[in-house]
């Protein structure tokens, strides 16, 4: 879940990935406005991904892959 306090970081991110949400959630709306790839509703992203992980996001397929 995101809120307006995260927008600064979202602007810097290459993509946005969340555990929860739908097509009208805050993260999805901000991602569309910023023209960033976004995968919402993963349920486990924050459990699997750690700070500093380098990931590849394929938003068309809904896939997040840890590179390093």
Can you summarize this structure?
The protein is α+β, with helices and mostly antiparallel strands. Helices cover 28% and strands 18% of the residues.
Overview of this protein structure:
This is PEP-utilising enzyme mobile domain-containing protein. It comes from Candidatus Nealsonbacteria bacterium RIFOXYB1_FULL_40_15. Belongs to the PEP-utilizing enzyme family. GO terms for molecular function: ATP binding; pyruvate, water dikinase activity. This protein has 68 residues and is α+β, with helices and mostly antiparallel strands. It has a single domain (4-66), classed as Phosphohistidine domain (Glucose Oxidase, domain 1). Helix content is 28%, strand content 18%. Strands 1-2 form a two-stranded parallel ribbon. Strands 3-4 form a two-stranded antiparallel ribbon. The protein is globular, with a radius of gyration of 11 Å. The model has no long low-confidence stretch (mean pLDDT 95).
Task: For the structure shown, list the relevant keywords.
28% helix, Glucose Oxidase, domain 1, 68 residues, alpha+beta, two-stranded parallel sheet
Secondary-structure-based class equals: alpha+beta
CATH class: Alpha Beta
CATH superfamily: Phosphohistidine domain
The H/E string reads HEHEHEE
The total tally of domains equals 1
Strand content: 15-25%
**Strand tally:** 4
Domain PEP-utilising enzyme mobile: 1-62
Organism: Candidatus Nealsonbacteria bacterium RIFOXYB1_FULL_40_15
GO molecular function: ATP binding; pyruvate, water dikinase activity
Family: Belongs to the PEP-utilizing enzyme family.
């Amino acid at each position: 879940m995101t809120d307006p306090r995260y927008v600064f970081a979202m602007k810097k991110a290459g993509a946005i990935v969340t555990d929860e949400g739908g097509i009208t959630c805050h993260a999805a709306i901000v991602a569309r406005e910023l023209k960033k790839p976004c995968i919402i509703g993963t349920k486990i992203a924050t459990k699997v991904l750690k700070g500093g992980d380098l990931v590849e996001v394929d938003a068309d397929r809904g896939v997040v892959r840890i590179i390093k």
